[in-house]
Design a protein that fits this description.
single chain; alpha/beta; 303 residues; rod-shaped; 9 strands; 7-stranded mixed sheet; 11 helices
């Protein structure tokens, strides 16, 4: 059974005439006749009385309500796809790492909303690994995350590099390490630290660096909020390795100090990720181009 057979059947049932049905469908009368005959052969029963007006048989009457539902469902699906291609989607879902949601995304969201006022934006703060997983599961449209080649290497993923940034140490002015102007990774051996929760790319990046140096990362407390890091570090006993974009804002806090670590310099790459099917949808395509343009202008790629 094919859709055009059901559409021909409906046209004849509603007009009561094969000629008028053909005119409504924009095909020849013989084409309508063949489609109805093929449908009758498929279902194994006559659907119309052929004498006089083409009235429905008992079988045709039983099929009518189902044919209407099937064609209505198809028409609605077809319209949704056309709306999608025309950029008429109702919402756009973005997940990003905390620093991106706090600092890079707000001006992008504002500009996007002016271009697409009827698209509702939904923004969620997630760790990089989690954001990429929900992107693959189809729960979001775009992820702004720390790059993880193991999760972004598949052919379905579209990856745009946004910027690189240094990872620096945040500590209070009363912390013993603050007395040193120049810090090494060895200075952080076994020092109690506040770290991002498991599933955040930064935690994995820092842990890998300690492992390469043969040092112990003393992860005393796990957090997932940049403001929580600020508050905890200000208590004096813990330090935290955090992204440069967040630490710039703390430069004027008299209780806190930011220190860079000697070689090797630890950096992270921030990328925008979507999928090859989503990038074809106009609002998503626009958002991706807008985000890349605005972020790259604001934060030059580190050399």
């Amino acid at each position: 059974m094919r859709l055009e057979q059901l559409q021909a059947f409906l046209a004849v049932a509603e007009t009561g005439n094969f000629l008028q049905a053909a005119q409504r469908c924009g095909v020849s009368q013989s084409t309508i006749s063949r489609q109805v005959q093929s449908l009758e052969a498929t279902v194994g029963i006559s659907l119309f009385h052929r004498q006089g007006n083409s009235k429905l048989t008992v079988g045709g009457d039983r099929l009518l309500i189902h044919a209407k539902k099937i064609c209505q469902i198809w028409s609605a699906a077809e319209q949704e796809l056309l709306d999608l291609q025309a950029g008429k989607q109702t919402e756009l879902c973005v997940a990003g790492i905390p620093s991106a949601c706090a600092y890079q995304l707000p001006p992008i969201l504002q500009k996007f909303s002016k271009a697409y006022p009827n698209v509702q934006l939904r923004v969620t703060t997630l760790g990089s690994d989690r954001a990429l997983k929900v992107l693959k599961d189809g729960l979001i449209d775009i992820a702004i995350v720390m790059n993880n080649p193991f999760l972004t290497a598949s052919s379905e993923m579209v990856v745009e590099q946004l910027y690189e940034e240094k990872i620096q140490l945040l500590l209070t002015i009363n912390h013993p390490l603050c007395r040193k102007e120049s810090l090494t990774w060895k200075d952080l051996h076994n020092v109690p630290q506040a770290v991002f929760k498991d599933g955040y790319g930064l935690q994995r990046l820092v842990q890998d660096q300690f492992n390469r140096q043969g040092l112990r990362l003393n992860a005393s407390l796990e957090l997932n909020s940049l403001e929580a890091f600020r508050g905890v570090v200000k208590q004096g006993s813990l330090v935290a390795l955090l992204p440069e974009t967040f630490l710039v804002e703390l430069a004027h806090d008299p209780d806190l100090v930011v220190r860079s670590l000697n070689e090797p310099c630890l950096t992270r790459e921030i990328v925008l990720v979507t999928t090859s099917d989503r990038i074809q949808i106009p609002p998503i395509q626009y958002f991706c181009k807008l985000a890349a343009q605005m972020i790259q202008q604001e934060i030059p790629v580190a050399l």
